[in-house]
Specification:
The chain is α/β, with parallel strands linked by helices. It has a single domain (about 1-260), classed as Metal-dependent hydrolases (TIM Barrel, Alpha-Beta Barrel), CATH 3.20.20. It is about 45% helix and about 15% strand. It has helices at about 20-25, 40-50, 70-80, 105-120, 135-145, 150, 165-175, 190-200, 230-240, 245-260; strands at about 1-5, 30-35, 55-60, 85-95, 125-130, 155-160, 175-180, 205. Strands 1-2-3-4-5-6-7-8 form an 8-stranded parallel sheet.
Length: about 260
């Protein structure tokens, strides 16, 4: 049994064959999928899908690239949706300095407001970080200082980790898990593999970030949860473990972080 801890299965690129995709995932042992949100509309769509699919769980929140029109009323809506039983996290949230879809000040406001909401609701967070590592970590390092006991040891995950080793060390010290995606299989990802080899096993998660970041040998095509075993296989080889042992460990990590009912 494997967990894809980050797949946007609600995206329209899956609309025509979503049921088949979920069936393919189950056929290779990926029986649990966490679907994060990027704005209020996708949060609603994610909730609907979690109601319709047993192994699907959701995270609600506003992605940094969706924060240009952020206001306090959005937090009220996110909070209302977060009380849905199959919501296991707030996310994905964070900072993105690559696309410049939203001013930094607005991204900060949305990020910090959603972190406070996660603290209030005692839910872990799914963190998006693109070219904003120092600011993301500075905010998170402050946030974790007074977390409630329920999430003190499981504050969240650095989704699709791709930052420098020093950021990995800061994130791990702050209590975060690191999520690894398709790029771990890419030829030019030696530095990422170097980092992944050193991360404590109990802090590792596997994710597709589907429909993006497809692993080798399907790179360039639409990603999907049935490709999780390819990521598991590459990471297991890197750490000199069997795929079964590594897969079991990451599944346990996912269940522990997100408190998924068994």
């Amino acid at each position: 049994m494997l967990v894809d801890t980050h797949c946007h299965i609600n995206f329209d690129s899956y609309d025509e064959d979503r049921a088949e995709i979920l069936a393919r995932a189950a056929s290779v042992g990926v029986t649990t999928i966490i679907n994060p949100s990027v704005d209020l509309a996708t949060s609603r769509a994610v909730l609907k899908l979690t109601e319709e699919n047993t192994g699907l769980y959701g995270a609600v929140g506003i992605h940094p690239n969706s924060t240009a029109d952020f206001n306090d009323g959005m937090i009220t809506e996110v909070e209302a949706m977060a009380h849905t039983p199959k919501v296991v996290a707030i996310g994905e949230i964070g900072l993105d300095y690559h696309w410049r879809e939203s001013p930094k000040e607005t991204q900060f406001k949305a990020f910090e407001a959603q972190l406070e909401l996660a603290k209030k609701l005692e839910l872990p967070v799914i963190i998006h970080n693109r070219e904003a590592s120092d600011d993301v970590m500075s905010i998170l390092e402050q946030w974790v200082k007074d977390l409630p006991p329920k999430i003190k040891e499981r504050p969240g995950v650095m989704h699709s980790f791709s930052a420098p080793e020093a950021i990995a060390e800061r994130a791990l010290t702050a209590g975060f898990y690191l999520g690894f995606t398709g790029p771990i299989t890419y030829k030019n990802a030696d530095q990422l593999r170097h980092i992944a080899a050193k991360v404590p096993l109990e802090r590792m998660l596997v994710e597709t970030d589907g429909p993006f970041l497809t692993p080798v040998p399907y790179r360039g095509k639409r990603n999907e949860p049935s490709y999780i075993p390819l990521i598991v296989e590459r990471l297991a080889k890197l750490r000199l473990m069997s795929t079964e042992e590594f897969g079991t460990a990451t599944t346990e990590n996912a269940y522990r972080l997100f408190q998924i009912p068994r």
